[in-house]
Amino acid sequence: MKRISSTYRHFLTLVALLFTSISYAQVGVTGINVQEPKALLHVEPLDNVNPETGAGILIPSVTQFSLVNPGAAQYGMLVFRSEATGSGFEGFYYWDNPNTTWEYIVTEKITELDLNKSSAYGTAFETNIVSGNTNYVKVPFEVVESPKASYFIDANGDLNIGQTGEYYISFTGGVNKPNTGENIAEGITTAVFLNGTINANLVSNTVFPAVLNNSRSVTFAISSSVTLQAGDKISLRTRRVSATQLGTLTVNSPFTLIVSYLD
Q1: Are 62 and 82 in contact (CB under 8 A)?
Q2: How far apart are CA 203 and CA 232, in angstroms?
Q3: pLDDT in tens, 239-255
Q4: Helix (H) or strand (E) holding 30
Q5: The pTM is what?
Q6: What angle do CA 151, 155, 157 make, to 5 degrees?
């Protein structure tokens, strides 16, 4: 009997696998590591008891959703959102086309979290507010925690809004003034800017008290409802009222912004 070469045996095996795949395709199912698929796609590990390291389906992972929304053809598309900051919102999201938003697939770990609330904070002025400077100076956002990856901090330190709607905005933060040897009160203002423009409803004014030979600090609080558009940029900025006051102002309590989606 003539022996079949190793190369020929490999060829016959490949042909057999090809015909098997074709037969699966004819009935509309595909199996991986399984002889008789029970669904359109049926995947099994090589060993159910001691599965291999890669036993599973790896869903595409993103840290931020595209600025251009998917369409109706992607309704139900699934991705995994990874989070370097450990905010607790990492997990699986699907594209909800009728509502034009990425929806979180809720798990037990976030049942006590508010899925409509996003927060961001910054800890320092973009440039020092030195004596004589009465311009608004930004406190760039450093961290954002949100259930939606479409809310993110851009390269300018602004918070980008990911969904159009009505929001309730609240802000708190504190500023310190060093000992300048002056016994004079000084006015100071902090405001929320939308797309680089001050919003008249989101302003807080206060005064450094007149305290001789001591540093002093003030805190700000802002809260209001506002309509925001997807893609709007929010920033926090502070200015001193008088150009004659001394001392360099610093942030002594993180500038914290909470944006709650209402409808």
Answers
A1: yes
A2: 18
A3: 999 889 899 999 999 99
A4: strand 30-32
A5: 0.63
A6: 70
